[in-house]
Amino acid sequence: MGKSVLIIGGGAIGLGLAYHLAGRAEVTLLERNQLTSGTSWHAAGIVGPLRATPNMTKIAMYAGELFPKLEEETGLSTGYRVTGGYWLAREEARMDELHRIASLGRHFGLTPSIVTPDQIEVPGLNTGGLVGGLKVAEDANVNPVDLCMAYAKGARAKGAQICEGVQVKRLLVENGTCKGVELADGSEIHADTVALCAGAWSRKLAQEAGVALPLQAVEHMYVVTEVMPQLPQPFPVLRDLERWIYVKGDAGKLVIGGFEPDAQVWDAYGPSGDRPFLELPENWEQFTPFMEAALELIPALEQTGIQHFMNGPESFTNDTRPMIGRVPEMDGLYVAAGMNSVGIMSSAGVGRVLADWIEEDSAPMDLWEVDVARADPLAAAADHMEARMAEAVADNF
Ligand SMILES: Cc1cc2nc3c(=O)[nH]c(=O)nc-3n(C[C@H](O)[C@H](O)[C@H](O)COP(=O)(O)OP(=O)(O)OC[C@H]3O[C@@H](n4cnc5c(N)ncnc54)[C@H](O)[C@@H]3O)c2cc1C
After folding, report:
1. Which of 344, 347, 396 maximizes ligand 1 atoms within 8 Å of its Cβ, making it the mutation to test the pocket?
2. pLDDT for res 3
3. How far apart are CA 204 and CA 200, in angstroms?
4. pLDDT digits over 16-50, tens only?
5. What tens digit of pLDDT does each residue of 306-315 get?
């Protein structure tokens, strides 16, 4: 069987890669704690096939094809459900962008349509102040942990070895080639290729091997409300773009999160950095503007309590685009990290293109906008990356 490939990290990205590569290569995935215990278990589970650029849309759309198939193949539910959604605009200039994205989506076979505020069919929504929106019938939800478990089962069935409780200490490098990894217990595993999919913890493993990756973890947060009996089912995914918030339904409750300017940086190597299923403290200073925006958009929230405040680390990049592909300065090393809060929905497409790339040793499509080869080592400097978080997170919208 093909190459031997070691995948570091058992989150959505490492598992999506293992699923696509299993059976085509000898795959071993190493997870230091339990599968999903880094960032993936936190995720809100929004799946948005329409992105701002053609190639990101191609990658994201594949989730809509794979997630239902994965359920059939593995017998495990992923919770995938098409809900539809709206991108909401409060400025005319934003409508120009939405028109452009709508035509991009139509080109790829999606069915987006531009709507006026009174065509937004969401009961209870305050459309005052909106100038219009983009309706996307294909927006969806998935359960991130269930999705990861389905990837793992599918990968194992095709021969992948998935090991939990195995921590990689460092990459083994000889003459500019990555030859495998050294584990925390001092043992070594050698392989033809190593794929670094360690999410927020990828930066240091790369750095210690001489590869500078512009990655920075930040606090990313959402709240889950109490049950709201009047909510339509399913509830569409809403993105109030000028207010930086997203809203989705979750079993009769709402999940409200956002992408703020001046995001709070988080030290992945600090005292709690290694803790599995880590929840960061509630951060109302950061979250209050999101809550105010949500109250204006959905006035019924005034009578609704908050059941849970979820705050987890997520890995961002300097230009809000992921770092994917073959690391140019080191043979044998691939990376897929810095998912900028869309790693669950992207895990199918990223897993597929990276698996093809590893097998063929060349990118299967034009991936320049996400190619790790674009990374400027100077941009990876810690102080620069921290400063970039003033804008990079909010740039999502
Ligand atoms: C609050 C919140 C809401 C979100 N909502 C959404 C959403 O709605 N939709 C969406 O698409 N995305 C969402 N995201 C983003 C998404 O969760 C991430 O992009 C995605 O989980 C990243 O997956 P990953 O596999 O790269 O990282 P991780 O899930 O962090 O996986 C990396 C794994 O590597 C392991 N690891 C680290 N170091 C080592 C080592 N030395 N040796 C072995 N293993 C190691 C870690 O333990 C971890 O399990 C959200 C994120 C947060 C925090």
Report:
1. 344
2. 95
3. 9
4. 999 999 999 999 999 999 999 999 999 999 999 99
5. 999 999 999 9
Does the C-beta of 14 come closer than 6 Å to ligand 1?
Answer: yes
Nearest CA to ligand 1 atom 21: 40
Q: Is the CB of 162 under 6 A from ligand 1?
A: no
Beta strand pairing call for 46-47 and 140-141? antiparallel
Asked if residue 60 lies in contact with residue 49, where contact means CB atoms within 8 angstroms, the answer is: yes
CA of 13 to the centre of ligand 1 (A): 8
The structure's pTM equals 0.97
* CA pseudo-torsion sign 189, 195, 200, 204: positive
Partners of 215 in the beta sheet?
Answer: 317
Q: Which parts of the chain sit beneath pLDDT 50?
A: none
Please tell me if the CB atom of residue 18 comes closer than 6 angstroms to any atom of ligand 1.
Answer: no
Q: Alpha-carbon torsion 89, 93, 95, 101, what sign?
A: negative
DSSP, residue by residue, 187-203? -EEE-SEEEE--GGGHH
Residue nearest to atom 37 of ligand 1 (CA): 198
Q: What is the CATH number of domain 4-396?
A: 3.50.50.60
263 Cβ inside 6 Å of ligand 1: no
The total of other beta-carbon atoms located within 10 Å of residue 333's CB is: 23
